[in-house]
Design goal:
This protein is α/β, with parallel strands linked by helices. It has one domain (7-217, 251-256): TIM Barrel (Alpha-Beta Barrel). Helices cover 36% and strands 18% of the residues. It is built from 10 helices and 11 strands. The chain has helices spanning 44-56, 72-81, 110-124, 143-155, 169-175, 196-205, 228-234, 238-249, 262-269, 278-287; strands at residues 13-16, 20-23, 27-28, 61-63, 89-94, 96-100, 103-106, 129-134, 159-165, 181-187, 208-212. Strands 3-4-5-8-9-10-11 form a 7-stranded parallel sheet, covered by helices on one side. It has a two-stranded antiparallel sheet with strand order 1-2. A two-stranded antiparallel ribbon has the order 6-7. β4 (61-63), α2 and β5 (89-94) form a beta-alpha-beta unit. α3 (110-124) crosses α4. The longest helix is centred in the middle third of the chain and has 15 residues, at 110-124. The chain is globular and about 55 Å long. The structure holds NADP nicotinamide-adenine-dinucleotide phosphate. Residues 28-31, 63, 165-166, 185, 212-218, 221, 239, 256-261, 264, 267-268 line the site of NADP nicotinamide-adenine-dinucleotide phosphate (NAP). InterPro entries: AKR, Aldo-Keto_reductase, NAD(P)_OxRdtase_dom_sf, NADP_OxRdtase_dom. Keywords: Oxidoreductase. It comes from Streptosporangium vulgare.
Length: 288
C-alpha cells in the first residue's frame, strides 16, 4: 500500500504513551450523531461508510466519547469496524453526563467514571480501552479521586493509557501525581491558540496533543473563509490547509477532524499529503 491509497500515513507517526503508534492524522466521531450530539445520525449508513473509509485511507486513530449520542458513536464504531484491525487505536472519554441536545454536565465521581468505562468496554466491544480521556475535570470532585479511579482501572487491565481533556498545564501536573498522563485534548486550531502553553508542555514531555475543533467546526473549512485565498494559491482546499498547518506546527499534534460525510473525510485525510513551504507556514501562523 502506498500513501496514495492510505494518505493518512503521510501525516507521520506518533507513539501514544510510547507504545501505541498511530498515523498522526486521525478522525473524530462527534459529527456522527444527531443534532446537538444527541441521538442517532440523520444517515446511519453514511456514518458507517465514513468510519470504514477512514480506516481504508490509513486512519488508525479514532476519537470518540461515551457522551456522543450518548453511546451512539461508540456503537457505530463497533458496528462499522469490529473485528478491529490490529493497529487501530480507539480513544474514548468519560466524565460528561447528558440531559439533552447540546447539554453537557461534568460528573467525575469515581463510581460514575467506573460505570462509564465499563459501558464503553461493552459498547466498543473491547477488553481494554486503548486511551481513556477524562472528558472534563469535575470541579466538585478532587482530581486525585477522578484520575485515581482511572489509574485503578488501568491496573485492573481495563484501560491501557489515560489522557485528559480541556485542561491547563497545572491540571496535567496535578493529575500526573495520580497517573501517567499520555495525552491532552484541548480546543486548538489556526484561529484559536489559547492552548499554546499546553502544547509546548506536551512537546517537552512527549505527551500527545489532540486539538479539538481543528476546523473551527467547519468555519476554517468554508470556501469563503479565512483560508480560501491561500488554499487556492496552494491548490488545496481550506480544510486541508488548516490541517496541514496543525500537522506542521508540532510533531506531537494529532488532529481529529470530524465529519459526517465520506466526501469531506476524503478531503480532510488528503491534508496529510499537503506540504506547506516555510513561507506558507509562517504566513498562516501570522495571518489567521
Ligand atoms: N474534548 C472535547 O471536549 C471535544 C469537544 C469537541 C470535539 N471533540 C472531538 O474533536 C473532533 C473534531 O471536532 P468537531 O468535529 O466538532 O469540529 P471540526 O473537526 O473542527 O469541524 C467539523 C465541522 O466541519 C465540517 N467539515 C469537516 N470537514 C469539512 C470539509 N472538508 N469541508 C467543509 N466542511 C467540513 C463538518 O461538517 P460535515 O459533517 O458536513 O462535514 C462539521 O460541521 C470531534 O469529532 C470530537 O471527536 C472533542
Amino acid at each position: 500500500m502506498t500513501t496514495t491509497t492510505r494518505p493518512a500515513e503521510a501525516s507521520g507517526q506518533f507513539a501514544i504513551g510510547g507504545d501505541l503508534t498511530v498515523n498522526r492524522l486521525g478522525y473524530g466521531t462527534m459529527q456522527l450523531t444527531g443534532e446537538g450530539v444527541w441521538g442517532d445520525p440523520r444517515d446511519p449508513e453514511e456514518a458507517v461508510r465514513v468510519l470504514r473509509r477512514a480506516v481504508e485511507l490509513g486512519v488508525n486513530f479514532i476519537d470518540t466519547a461515551d457522551s456522543y449520542g450518548p453511546f451512539v458513536a461508540e456503537l457505530l464504531i463497533k458496528k462499522a469496524l469490529r473485528p478491529y484491525a490490529d493497529d487501530l487505536v480507539i480513544a474514548t472519554k468519560a466524565g460528561f453526563t447528558r440531559q439533552g441536545p447540546g447539554i453537557w454536565t461534568p460528573v467525575g465521581r469515581p463510581e460514575y467514571l467506573r460505570q462509564q468505562v465499563e459501558l464503553s468496554l461493552r459498547h466498543l466491544g473491547v477488553e481494554r480501552i486503548d486511551l481513556l480521556q477524562l472528558h472534563r475535570i469535575d470541579p466538585a470532585v478532587p482530581v486525585a479521586d477522578q484520575v485515581g479511579e482511572l489509574a485503578l482501572m488501568q491496573r485492573e487491565g481495563k484501560i491501557r493509557h489515560i489522557g485528559l481533556s480541556e485542561v491547563s498545564v497545572e491540571d496535567v501536573e496535578e493529575a500526573g501525581r495520580s497517573a501517567t498522563i499520555v495525552s491532552v485534548q484541548n480546543l486548538y486550531n489556526l484561529a484559536h491558540r489559547d492552548a499554546e502553553p499546553l502544547l509546548e508542555y506536551s512537546e517537552a514531555n512527549g505527551i500527545a496533543f489532540i486539538p479539538w475543533f481543528p476546523l473551527a467546526t467547519g468555519k476554517l473549512a468554508a470556501e469563503g473563509g479565512p483560508l480560501a485565498a491561500a488554499a487556492k494559491e496552494h491548490g488545496a482546499t481550506p480544510s486541508q490547509l488548516a490541517l496541514a498547518w496543525l500537522l506542521r506546527r508540532s510533531p506531537v499534534m494529532l488532529p481529529i477532524p470530524g465529519t459526517s460525510t465520506v466526501a469531506h473525510l476524503e478531503d480532510n485525510v488528503a491534508a496529510a499529503t499537503v506540504q506547506l513551504t516555510d513561507a506558507e507556514f509562517d504566513a498562516l501562523t501570522r495571518g489567521v
